[in-house]
Write a structure and sequence with these properties.
The protein is of the alpha+beta class. The chain is built from 1 helix and 2 strands. It has one domain. It is 15% helix and 15% strand. 0% of the residues are buried.
């Protein structure tokens, strides 16, 4: 059995929407998203929940 069920042997990750549509994420696209400046900051409208979103 694979360790990651949503990954293919080539490294492509996929997901399914509630409507059943399959979304396929290429490995290179995910790496670009990880290095994006937007991914380095928390969302501006994130609520402050002690123990969850803040210490």
């Amino acid at each position: 059995m694979p360790d990651i069920y949503s990954s293919t042997p080539g490294g492509t990750i996929y997901s399914t929407t509630p409507g059943g549509t399959r979304i396929i994420y290429d490995r290179n696209f995910l790496i670009q998203c990880r290095n994006s400046p937007l991914s380095q900051t928390p969302p501006t409208n994130l609520p402050l929940i002690p123990g969850i979103t803040c210490p």
